[in-house]
Amino acid sequence: MALHENEIPVDETLVRSLLQAQRPEWAGLPLSPAGAGTDNTMYRLGHDLLVRLPRTAGSGQSVRKEQQWLPRLAARLSCVIPEPVHAGTPTDAFPVAWSVLRWIDGDEAGSDTVGDWATFGADLAAVVRELHRVDLMGAARADGLSWYRGGSLEPCDQWIAGCFDDCRTTVGSELDIDFLEQLWRAALALPEPSGPHVWLHGDLKPTNLLVREGGLHAVIDFGGLSIGFPDAEHSTVWDLPSQARQAYWDTLDLDDATWTRARAWAIAVGVSGISYYWDTFPAFVAECRARLRAILADAATR
């Protein structure tokens, strides 16, 4: 199902035609769907390759960004991250940049794959700390590296206020939307972040964290790669069990203001996801609802 009004249709025939035109040596390899997110559709190609195709023209910028920066970041990070092996160019049939990456074996982080959640949370925090300490290599918060989640909360307030209203209609009977909005406004009342800009993954949710032998193995999907304040980077810990969340907080020794802003970002992504994808992407809406339930439960204990 299409998630966006301007979505570009993709199927196996199209993917093979792109490969035939640009990498004919791969065109005959086995091809199978390998998942789809809000911005990209993926196909596994052969045993060790992954084709990544943006859903919309606007997402093509993320592909080019990954091609440019992932090799540089990989040399400075100890965790496994995607390795681009082909920069696909636009065609008449698919007028957006696309890519082929090296396949990474692993399972999504979940209750049936993670051996110890406290260890997982600490390991994820170590990855985040390492990424945030990488030199900016001359890059700045501009153009493709200026995603909204690396900025301050205030510019999003009007948009998110509308999402709260939508959620009162759709999930208001099961979630305390008024209290979630209070938490959002408490973060807005804090001083703006003032630390240095850092590299940000942008979306460290469980589906982008691969597990092998019970532990964190790789971080994937750098489509949200940007430079900015780190607060929003921590927001996805509410997608993890409380043991992982506590270990993450302890490992990074986050202050209360950073944690409060991170929680506000988690609320913003949750309510906006429900608002935008309510009729088109029920699996993602379920993720957002679970995140908001975790925030409410966590807030009741602090």
TrEMBL record:
Superkingdom of this protein's organism: Bacteria
Keywords assigned by UniProt, alphabetized: Kinase, Transferase
InterPro entries given in the database record: AGP_Transferase (IPR051678), Aminoglycoside_PTrfase (IPR002575), Kinase-like_dom_sf (IPR011009)
Gene3D superfamilies named in the record: 3.90.1200.10, Phosphorylase Kinase, domain 1
Any GO MF annotation of the entry: kinase activity
Residue stretches making up the Aminoglycoside phosphotransferase domain: 32-265
Protein name stated in the entry: Aminoglycoside phosphotransferase (APT) family kinase protein
Organism: Streptomyces clavifer
